[in-house]
Amino acid sequence: MDDRHNAVAERQRVTSIRILHRDPTGKVFDGGVEYGVEQFAGQVPAIGDTILDPGVIAGQDRNDPQNRSIWTVVGRVFNPRDREDTVALIVESRDGNLADEAFA
Fold this sequence. Notes:
Distance between the termini: 36 Å
Strand order of the largest sheet: 2-1-5-4-3
Structural class: mainly beta
Order of helices and strands: HEEEEE
CATH architecture: Roll
Radius of gyration: 15 Å
CATH topology: Ubiquitin-like (UB roll)
Shape: globular
Largest sheet: 5 strands, mixed
Strand content: 35-45%
C-alpha cells in the first residue's frame, strides 16, 4: 500500500482524537478533551505538527495570539485504553506570542 492509501484508511478508522499533555518534567496527563478528525482538516496530526489550541478563555480575544496556546505533537498513541477508534496525541504546550500572529 502507498502512503496515500494508508492515510485514507487511517482516517476512516479513527473517529476520536484525544489530547494528552506532556509537562516539562516529562509526565503525560490526560487533558480530558477529544476532537473529531474533521476538526484537524480531516487528518490525524503527526509528530512534529503544530496545532493551534481551539480553546480560548471566555471573554478573551481569540484573534490575539497571546490568548492562545500552541501545541506541538511529540507522540501518538493508537488504541489508548483499548479504544481502537481513537488516537491520542501527546502534545507539549506553549503560550502564543506575537510571532504566531500569522496563524493564531
